[in-house]
Amino acid sequence: MAFIQRNNPQKNMTILHALRNLVRAALLALILASSLIAQNTRVDVGKHSRIPRICEGLTPAQIDGTVDLPALVKEAMCKGAGDMLGEYTFTVNSVKLEKNKKGRTKEETYVYEVFIPTLKSGTRTRGVLIVTSHNGVAVPTEKLQKERERAAEKIEKEEEKIARTPTAPEIPESEQATGMKPLGMYGRSSITRSAFGIKSGGVTLGIAGFLETADLTFVRREQVAGRETLIFNFTPRAGTQFIDNEKYIAQLTGEIWIDAADRIVTRLIGWPPVILGAANGVSTGERPPAILMEMMRLPQQGIWLPRVIRINGADYQTLFDGIKTDSTRTYSNYFRFATEVKDAQLGPTTNP
What we know:
single chain; alpha+beta; 2 domains; eleven-stranded antiparallel sheet; two-stranded antiparallel sheet; 5 helices; globular; disordered C terminus
């Protein structure tokens, strides 16, 4: 190296020591980055204090015969603007695929149990996640039990914090704005690319973003799982100014499915319009999707919650602002446990 001097061993030792520290710092940063990437799944939820503004004043859209598309889009945005996810425990299966330059794939999987601290109206929290499996290997029972105990302590502390959080007085139902009530809660997923703690790219996927920025064309009606479903094609709306994490929407076309009875989006799927692929006889449906979101209906409660969220940067490496992984989250095992906390108080209680 040009800066190593033959006749100055003391200075050379100082330079080598500094280089050694730089290498150690770089390795430490890489290790920390790997740890963050492995544990970057999180669930943020909140509880409304009133019906969402998008739902105020809405009336059911006309879908018999000619579909009133503008009204239906507004209704679909409202129907998925709920806060129900915060009332459930559930399981998330997170799969991340990466492709190297030779096309070989590397897969990493985590399975999480997700627990949400009980919320009161007007508050937000982050779910507590417990890893139960990594790359198909179950966490040992003893270790899992300890993690669950730690999670219980964390939830208890968060619920105490929520109970102390001041919120606006609850508006009597008779004084609240009228309109529709949501029948589900759309999922939302964000992936951030960073190097040494500095963000260098990112992507956000949410159904509402497509309803707000895409033009829909009615295609057909289908029976899906015994329910009438309206199928629409979507294209990006000309002249739309997308935020940085959603600029990829301008390069996608695809389908949006809306349940005819509940007026909620049940499926969103999209691909870049690859002309070469079409010329070679590859149809859109035969290509892996660039984005996919699916909802599932819980029949006993009659509400819709996320089932699948996928952002596929492995097959479309120039689409998602530097995100080159295929990330899929599958939600299952929903179990309702929570009710709204009202007038929560801390401290000892006395028997009547």
